Amino acid sequence: MTAGASRGAPVAFVDGQRLWQRLMTLAQFGAVGEGGVDRPALSDTEANARARIVAWARALDMRPYTDRVANLFLRFEGTDPTLPPVLVGSHIDSQPTGGRFDGVYGVLAGLEVVQAILVSDKRPRRAIEVVAWTNEEGSRFAPGMTGSYVFTEQKSFDEVASTRDGQGIKLEDAAAWILQSDQDVELRDFGREACAYVEAHIEQGPLLQREGVPVGIVTGIQGTRRYRVSVDGAAAHAGTASREDRRDALMTAVRIIAALDDAADIAGLKCTVGLFNVVPNAPSVVPSNVVFSVDIRHPDNEVVDMIDGFLKTLAVEHRGRCTVSVRQIAHAPSLTFSRNIQNVIAEAAASAGVPCMSIYSSAGHDARQLHYFCPTGMIFIPCRDGVSHNPEEWAEPEHVTAGAKVLCETVWRLANDD
Amino acid sequence: MTAGASRGAPVAFVDGQRLWQRLMTLAQFGAVGEGGVDRPALSDTEANARARIVAWARALDMRPYTDRVANLFLRFEGTDPTLPPVLVGSHIDSQPTGGRFDGVYGVLAGLEVVQAILVSDKRPRRAIEVVAWTNEEGSRFAPGMTGSYVFTEQKSFDEVASTRDGQGIKLEDAAAWILQSDQDVELRDFGREACAYVEAHIEQGPLLQREGVPVGIVTGIQGTRRYRVSVDGAAAHAGTASREDRRDALMTAVRIIAALDDAADIAGLKCTVGLFNVVPNAPSVVPSNVVFSVDIRHPDNEVVDMIDGFLKTLAVEHRGRCTVSVRQIAHAPSLTFSRNIQNVIAEAAASAGVPCMSIYSSAGHDARQLHYFCPTGMIFIPCRDGVSHNPEEWAEPEHVTAGAKVLCETVWRLANDD
Question: Which of A308, A402, B134, B148 is found 20 to 30 A from A74 (Cα to Cα)?
Fold first, then answer.
């Protein structure tokens, strides 16, 4: 197929309004205030959102499947069911202060692709499976991307099963609870073959908006390391324990973080302490323990590795009279997506008449794990001022539509490929 | 009465073993692990402990009263019921990581005083009221000392009524719940006249142990200021928001605290950040809000006032792109207890044959509020290594007994005074 979508091609049937309405409907599951969404992985809220998506999919002649980690697959059968399918999707869990687009867009755009194909009265050779991966955000069960890690067998189910949330609930129990609440959704194995994976997502950065381009072809994902740092001191009375006698876990944590933030003043480096838990967390008690997270990202793996070294050194230098342990919980090097998928997306955009540009992803996505499993690519659409993980998160309806069109043409091409 | 307790004087009937056993019994209410106690103010746990104390008191011919803030008064009638009573007591709530002695000792030592008097077959002229003040610790409802503040009418009930705990429960509702669970305990007004107040307590510092002296006559309490500092930034994605664009509430909080800790490196000054709450507290989200406590104490009011000035300056200097508000929630200047009560305690100790020394209190106590209401004094006993607000908190049985003897002789003298 060359430039210019042929008459009657599925892309002509992509309905931006329908997709927009589904986005707004899904934003009601876990809605908080003006535009905010709090939809923890494997929660009641997510189960309800999942049930709604399954209902939409069944109406599109799709069949739902799941696996033990509660990934959701909605299969639209191809003319040759023996061929490995094209996977298209993202996730439907959110950060506690999330918005309406992060994750959900990729899943609902996938549904819209299938609906456009259905309405065009065509069938692809390969099946298309719309996927919602479990616990991408990692804010309920840390670290995130659980579903894609386990599906691609980079982690075993046993490895993630006993991860606990803040209330002490195990991931395996939360997943089992979701499976129980599913209505007639068949269970299947991890690691089923796929011919490609494509994920549409908001950019979560300001570049597309700045350039005035509606679609980004993602070239790769920046490297990241994540840690839990635990500082142990001793609880003491705020009025009587002298400065010299204290083993103040909070002051030690503060010194380490301040020094790390100084060391992290490097162009393009992002260093975040998002989680900080104090024991006993009482105003009149010198803290006995602090656990905090560190998240380091940079496109250059060497910079990330350098900060890794700094963190370990600073933890020792500033520990004072406390003991400090630094535990790395995730390490994902920078990666470059399949050139072939990047080319297919570029051709698809040209064919659909949507301007596009190459762009690098600063955020991690499930596509990172799929990249090591099958040819993988991502499509970005702009989000206002780059704001994400925030109730203010916003994508323009015309960009939502443009991204779905490029996704539709991309998936259609991949699903009819040899 | 001169030195040397007369035969048959109540002090001879103080039974250290009985007092010790009651201490260990009460430590079961809210027991956590080895010696730890978690007994939040106005909780179920405290209600159960309170019911046990009321039962003990009734067996000693005492009558229980309470007030709207749930202070507990156990009245042992004097021969002249028209005279204002002697108050003796402390509190029974604990820090989340509390021990077996802080607070409870003063209440149970008061009961032991009454029991010794009862067994000696004597009656004081004035009534003796053993008191347990509500929410001294301030770890459930901040700030603390609520019961003594309201009883002495330095704060109105309305002023404290809508204080909420971490779960959003109002203090007035928690207090009403306790009153409901009381069995036949009469309600009375705040601010009832008292002729004196005496509080026995563990030192929560190392001086008595270091000097090898079993009883301290407390000369005064060091000054304190308490704050809540709130830092407002903006939530953002940890992987995409650039360092320059961030309004990171946690990094701002960390900078303020590190600078404050530098400024607080002054002999005798105690500066504590015990509480630190992050929103949304998720590893992949730049924090939008941090609220932390600051607790500053020093015997010299001028030093406390100086740090107060520092804190406000540092909050502005280090706010970066965030907004910072510093709210003082408590201010208690250093104070000196009644010379007369100090003298009575010294005479009582001499009479009971217990060595004593003068000592300054670094910790705040309900006696601070009573000091502004009636002649007030405190009796300290040593606690091991000065450790308090910690499961390791420990007082030797012989010191527990010695303190109760001095308290008994002190209260007996005050209750028979003109």
Answer: A402
Boundaries of every domain in chain B:
10-221+334-416, 223-332
CATH number of A10-222+335-416: 3.40.630.10
* Whether B389 and A363 lie within 8 Å, measured CB to CB: no
Give the residue-averaged pLDDT of B166-189. 95
The H or E element containing residue B108 is helix B104-119
CA–CA gap between residue A411 and residue A405 (Å, rounded)? 10
Residue A112 gets the label, from left (phi > 0), alpha (psi -120 to 50) or beta, of alpha
Helix (H) or strand (E) holding B173: helix B171-181
Which amino acid is located at B359 in the chain?
I
What residue type is assigned to position B310 of the chain?
A: F
Residues 6 or more apart from A91 whose CB is under 8 A from it? A103, A106, A107, A132, A133, A134, A135, A136, A137, A147, A366
Q: Are strands A276-279 and A289-298 parallel, antiparallel or unpaired?
A: antiparallel
Q: Do B399 and B5 meet the contact criterion of CB atoms below 8 Å apart? A: no
Q: pLDDT class for B7, splitting at 50, 70, 90?
A: low
| Residue B229 confidence class, pLDDT cut points 50, 70, 90 | very high
Chain B interface includes A363 (CB < 8 A) = yes
Residue B316 has a CB neighbour count (10 Å cut-off) of 10
CB B78 within 8 A of CB B415: yes
Element (H, E) at B157: helix B157-161
The answer to whether residue A273 neighbours chain B at the CB level (below 8 Å) is yes
Q: What is the pLDDT of residue A6?
A: 55
Pairing of strands B86-91, B128-133: parallel
In CATH, which superfamily holds the domain spanning B10-221+334-416?
Answer: Zn peptidases (3.40.630.10)
**Inter-chain residue contact B240 with A204, CB threshold 8 Å:** yes
In this structure, the number of other CB atoms found within 10 A of the CB of residue B90 comes to 28
The residue type at B235: A
Note the pLDDT of residue B332: 87
Give the pLDDT score at A417: 85
Report which of B274, B165, B363 is spatially closest to residue A279, judged by C-alpha positions: B274
Three-state SS string across A198-214, please?
A: EEEEECCCCHHHHHCCC
Task: Give pTM, 2 decimals.
Answer: 0.73
B387 and A236 within 8 Å at the Cβ level: the answer is: yes
Cβ contact, residue pair A363, B240, below 8 Å? yes
Count Cβ atoms within 10 A of the Cβ of residue B309 and give its class: 0-12 exposed, 13-18 middle, 19 or more buried.
exposed
DSSP code of residue B84: P
Q: For position B1, what pLDDT does the model report?
A: 38
CA distance B236 to chain A (A): 6
Return the structure tokens found at B245. 């664009």
DSSP element (H, E) containing A48: helix A44-58
ipTM: 0.74
Closest partner CB to A280 (pick from B95, B264, B282): B95
The Cβ of residue B320 has, within 10 Å, a number of other Cβ atoms equal to 17
B402 in Cβ contact with B381 (< 8 Å): yes
| Nearest residue of A to residue B253, measured between CA atoms | A254
**Pairwise CA distance, residues A401 & A165, whole Å:** 36
Q: Does B131 touch chain A (CB under 8 A)?
A: no
B-chain residues near A279 (CB < 8 A):
97
For B363, which of A239, A277, A363 is closest by C-beta distance?
A239
Helix (H) or strand (E) holding A326: strand A323-332
**Domain B223-332 listed as CATH 3.30.420.40:** no
Mean predicted confidence (pLDDT) in B83-100: 96
3-state secondary structure of A283: coil
CA distances from B88 to A6, A54, B9, B71, B335 (A): 93, 68, 19, 13, 19
pLDDT band at residue B158, thresholds of 50, 70 and 90?
very high
Element (DSSP H or E) covering residue A115: helix A104-119
